[in-house]
Protein: Glucosamine-6-phosphate isomerase
Organism: Vanrija pseudolonga
Amino acid sequence: RDTKTEVGHYIGDYIARRINTFVATPGHPNFVLGCPTGSSPLPVYARLVELYKAGKVSFKNVVTFNMDEYVGIPRDHPESYHTFMFKNFFSLIDIDPKNTNLLNGNAEDLYHECEAYEAKILEVGGIDLFLGGIGADGHIAFNEPGSSLKSRTRIKTLAYETILDNCRFFNNDLAAVPRMALTVGVQTVMDAKEVVLVVTGQNKALALSQMIEGGVNHMVTASALQSHPWALVVCDEDATSEL
Ligand code: GLP
């Protein structure tokens, strides 16, 4: 697609179609959507909200699982992923807040929090479609370079490049950016029936070429998707400059 907005339209329409044609089965009564944060998916959420407002899709039977959350900032912090999701998506559609799942970066027992998250995904029948973005270093969710491609939900220390990238959201104050996060693993994403990635902007061009044209490797964790049976990458013109 030419622009970020067009990418958002394309993926938004695509997800709405999936939700509308979803066939419920025993043990899997809801469409289960994996959700990312970051600037890349914003046009996708905007399109889905637009479709909801036009009566073209409903989220009453949708359950969501977010990819990740920072450790150590309050849930209602303006930059928490919890705040991001309610502000940009959940509060603008007809989803039941009880059907939205986000990792709790302030849980007393973070290990248990991660295990329970994986168990809950299994309980609802697995993720039907995981929407994702990628970091400039080719990470998916917060699976930083070096993460095992078999990893599952866990605590992760953020790479310096990611902390620098995210600095813009914390008034450019490097010290204010959380150093750790809870994140689904690469294998958690790989287990989804379908994965759709939104990759836009010149700053993702190198990561996109490494992810698609490089070998599958743990330094570019999104490259694992090369072996996913049903993965779609939607990008804008800018992101393709290194292909
Ligand atoms: C963070 C998130 C990722 C996201 C990435 C890119 O690292 N954990 O899920 O893909 O940021 O964000 P942006 O889309 O703002 O470039």
The mean pLDDT is 97. The longest helix spans residues 4-20.
